[in-house]
Design brief:
Elements lengths: L30 H8 L9 E5 L2 E2 L15 H6 L12 E4 L7
Antiparallel strand pairs: 1-2, 1-3
InterPro entries: Cytochrome_b5_domain
Keywords: Heme, Iron, Metal-binding
Organism: Colobus angolensis palliatus (Peters' Angolan colobus)
Amino acid sequence: MPRRGLVAGPDLEYFQRRYFTPAEVGVLESIWEILHRYLPYNAHAASYTWKYEGKNLNMDFTLEENGIRDEEEEFDYLNMDGTLHTPAILLYFNDDLTEL
């Protein structure tokens, strides 16, 4: 009897999520510059809409200019572990397969 609903998962050797740590993202880099560093992991990175807290990011602005603050000092002041909260930029696929 065939099994229903079961499909093979992704080959994790080739399919991996990529996270940039705060140390890897320069304060003065625009979102476009970050996107260009992401290209080796996904050649279609320009096919995504980049959003933070539901708002489209301006690709010419830095993280801080887009309202994404480095809150490390605030966490230190409050004696909180800064790793408990990591701001996340969400990428929404546009289905156009743009390559840079």
